[in-house]
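Hey,
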Amino acid sequence: MINVALDLARYVRSAVLNYRSQQVRRHVRGDSPGGDAQFDIDYIAEDAAVRFLQAETRCRAALYSEDRGYLAIHSDPEYLFVVDPIDGTRPAAAGLEMAMVSVAVAPHDRDAALKDVVCAVLVEVESGRAIYGDAQGLRADGYQVDLPRLNDARDIAYMFWSIELNGHPMSLMAKAYGDLVDASANSGAVFVFNSSTFSISRIITGQMDAYVDVGNRVLRDHPETEPDFRRAGRGSILHLFPYDIAAVVFLAQLAGVVITDAYGGSLDETKLQDMGPMNQQSCVAACTAELHAALIKSINWTF
């Protein structure tokens, strides 16, 4: 299945680059079932994923994607392809590098969870570089160094890390990790990539030390904040959906990244086809166990 997933990701990338070369004006054409804004380039990528799997003869597939939801491509499917055709739509629309095609594959089961993923692929939209893996381990194409290349960072003050803001009220995020930003922004670095997949994958490449998305834990701990999250999400809860993280969590675990939800718990039971707020996730990922523990300890959860 790894070859099918790689071919699928590369086919989607090609369709996106071809569309963008036409200099079509970017605009929002609607919302995904989860409520995230869908740009014109999202529809091009979604259609490409469907076309590829419809023509695929190496397996019987079903698709779960950001905009289409569940779609049985073949009768009696044997594999479920969980696809985020562009994770990082806004960077992709702007021609920036922080966008990836994300594909995770699990045996077909309506109750399949992240723990059931058997292989995964990430392909960078701009460069075509790929990180992928299965039971045989992690591999990569196009990088100048061997992967994984995890750093040894342990000190919050010197970490290079990224945070998530899409659908997250800025006032709440400032309360949660404002002190962490202040502590690390000068002697380390803080980034907002608008792509969880790109953010976590940069820990695998050694470019980043950590990634934090606290939104879903804040909502669970403080249900009274739901109106704030819905206001920021234009009526929807927009935390980490399963299709956002299915591939990158699998690959991060293969690479040795310490990756959990914001409570420090496993992400394995995350259902691959449930978009509800209580199946959406938070995430803390770090290159070392010490940095991971320091992040969870240092975030302000009581406000």
